[in-house]
Amino acid sequence: MPRNRDRRGTMAALTSLLDNTRAVAGSATAFGTPVTSGGTTVVPVARVSTLSTMGGGTGRLPFLGGGDGAGGAGYTRVRPSGFLVVSPDSAHYRPIRQPAAALAIPLALITAAAVTRIVSVSVKEARRRKMVAALDSRQECSHDDHGGCRDQDSAEA
Question: Mind listing the pLDDT tens digit for each residue in 120-154?
């Protein structure tokens, strides 16, 4: 952090945020340092994702005396990806399989299809019930002299 000493205010805060994120975002932070046994070394490999937002500004308003400010927020995710096995003869990468992650997308698609079908069937049934209720209200019976039933429209005529 010695390079922050010559910077002031906004730039110092933003540089400090970037330096701290860089220091944390590594496989050694989450999984430790490489392990050596005999002539073979195992090096952890990680997949690092970072999302950050930053902003800052200065102001020189005559009556308020101006100001300087900065801020930011960030999210860093470190997931195991695999490991390197380095021996005197060769080096091999061994991936770490995550079957739960491979199931997430197909399960999300199946769930979306099921929800879409349930909603469409529910909407169709609601429309059908509304139509039946409208037809029933139009066809209320008025009895004639012979005990029959005729439409309300024909009874008024």
Answer: 999 999 999 999 988 888 776 544 555 555 555 55
In terms of pTM, does the model score above 0.70? no
Q: Work out the number of other CB atoms within 10 angstroms of the CB of residue 83.
A: 20
Q: Count of CB atoms within 10 A of residue 27's CB?
A: 20
CA distance 139 to 129: 15
Q: Which residues make beta-bridge pairs with 50?
A: 76
How many other C-beta atoms lie within 10 A of the C-beta of residue 79? Answer: 13
Print burial letters for 84-101: b (CB count within 10 Å at least 16), e (below 16).
Answer: eebeeeeeeeeeeeeeee
- Residue 29 neighbours by CB under 8 Å, 6+ apart: 78
Q: What is the Cα–Cα distance from 9 to 4, expressed in whole angstroms?
A: 10
